[in-house]
Write a structure and sequence with these properties.
The protein has a single domain, classed as Rossmann fold (3-Layer(aba) Sandwich). The protein is built from 8 helices and 7 strands. By secondary structure, it is of the alpha/beta class. Helix 4 packs parallel to helix 5. It is globular. The longest helix has 29 residues.
Length: about 250
Amino acid sequence: MTQTPDPFGLAGRIAVVTGANTGIGQAICVALANAGARIAAVGRSAMDETAARIGGGPDAFRAIRADLSNIESLQPVVDETLAWAGGIDILVNNAGIIRRNDALDFTEADWDAVMDTNLKSCFFLSQAAARVMIPNGYGKIVNIASLLSFQGGIRVASYTASKSGLAGLTKLLANEWAARGVNVNAVAPGYVETNNTEALRNDPARCRAILERIPAGRWARPEDIAGAAVFLASPAADYVHGVTLPVDGGWLGR
C-alpha cells in the first residue's frame, strides 16, 4: 500500500509569523512548528517565551525585531528570513492593534495607527512575500481577521475598518494569486483571551454579555485559533482560496 503524505504536515516549510511574542501569534508559531515548519517570528518585543515553547535551536526558530507600523520595516523582514532559511513558504499576518473610543471622539492618530499596522502592513508584507512565493509556484498566506470583518462592533472604528478591509483584501489577493500557486485565506477569531481584549474581560457587564452570546460558553484561548491557521497553511487547504474562516465558538451562528 502506498503511504499517503500527511495532509496537515509542514515538514521543511518556512513560516513567517508576525505579532509572534504573545497570544494568538505565539500559539500559531508553536502549532506550525509542531507540524514541522521552521519559524521566523516577527515582533516589536522579545520573543524568548515563544522560542522556549518551540525549542529546536537556531535552525528551527529565528526572532526578527520589526515595527510593522512602519512600511520601511517590511522588506527587511523578508530579506532576513531569506538569509536565514533560503525561502518563504508561509506568511501569517497576525500583528494587530486596537484603539477604543466613541466614534464622535475618535482621533486621526488612533485611526492611522490601527490602519497602518492592521491593514497597510498586511498588504505590503504579503506583496513582498508573494514576490518570493510566486516564482516558486507555491505559498500560503493566512491573514488574521476578526468577527468585526463581518460585524460593526462599537467604539473601535479603525479596528472594524481595518479588519473589514482585510477580509476584502484576502479575496482580492486570492483572485490574483490562486492560479500562480499562492493560497490567500484568513481566520476570523471570536473573543479570545489576549492583551487586546483585556479591557472587555475586565468589564463585568460587557464580559457577561459576551459570554451569554457565545454558544460554546467560554472565551477562546489562543490555541483554539492556531489549528485553523495550520489547516490553511497545510496541503489540506490546497483548494481553499479567498475564505475568511470564523473560529468563534458559534458566535455568528447565534
